[in-house]
Write a structure and sequence with these properties.
4-stranded antiparallel β-sheet; 4 helices; about 30% strand; globular
């Protein structure tokens, strides 16, 4: 198995159950396309257990920044939660289908939970290299579990080409409620030509892809990792 040994150099809580980890590998440069994922390898398991995570940072450095939500029965999330600064964390080279296809076309990002991580990395790339408009829609259950809200709000304040919308499913609040795919006609997006990228738990991705198809978007303008339908019964 091809791996790179990284060292956990910092960790801090983003929400009550989600932690941001910074992994660094001296004398190594991580080359990837924003949106792609690495895989953490748990070497103390036999055979080793591997789980994918998408960095929120840009390529070209010796670090990966990962946001991992801890589940009580989660194999890797609980393993990572037990790591301390200075511990070694093996990771695999980055790969994956989720990446920007056209930097000259408007884009729509639809995410929930930690599905925001690859899309945030892609948004940063687009704001640097792209020419169109970004509509970024992120859904969560409650305000306190919204990941990277300050980051998105700051980027939106700095870039007129980025508009951000939040959707909450478990609480009444002044903004949108329900599901990200329930408000398509209220977002400031050019649905006639925009590329749409979707990332979240498998059921959210499948439901959103179905809604986008019903909305009239052709498959060739809608992108996800591609494995989600096989994970939904």
């Amino acid at each position: 198995m091809d791996t790179v040994d990284t060292v956990l150099v910092s960790r801090h809580a983003l929400t009550p159950r989600t932690t941001q980890y910074v992994l660094r590998a001296d004398d190594h440069t991580f080359s990837f396309k924003p949106g792609q994922h690495t895989s953490i390898v748990m070497p103390d398991r036999s055979p080793p257990v591997v789980r994918p995570y998408s960095p929120v940072n840009q390529p070209g450095t010796n670090a990966l920044v990962l946001a991992i939500k801890r589940y009580d029965d989660g194999t890797c999330s609980t393993w990572m939660d037990a790591r301390s600064v200075g511990d070694t964390v093996p990771v695999m080279p980055l790969s994956g289908n989720l990446q920007l296809r056209d930097l000259n076309r408007d884009v729509v990002f639809l995410s929930t939970g930690t599905g925001i991580t690859p899309l945030l990395s892609m948004a940063r790339q687009y704001l640097t290299e792209g020419t169109g408009h970004i509509t970024f829609v992120h859904g969560e259950k409650r305000p306190e579990t919204l990941l990277y809200r300050e980051t998105l709000d700051l980027l939106a304040a700095e870039h007129d080409r980025l508009s951000v919308h939040y959707v909450l499913s478990d609480v009444e609040w002044p903004g949108r409620t329900g599901f990200v795919q329930s408000h398509l006609d209220t977002y400031d997006a050019d649905w006639e030509s925009a590329h749409v990228y979707v990332c979240g738990v498998p059921q959210m991705v499948v439901d959103t892809l179905d809604t986008l198809a019903d909305y009239g978007l052709p498959d060739e303008r809608v992108f996800s990792e591609g494995w989600e339908s096989g994970s939904v019964s």
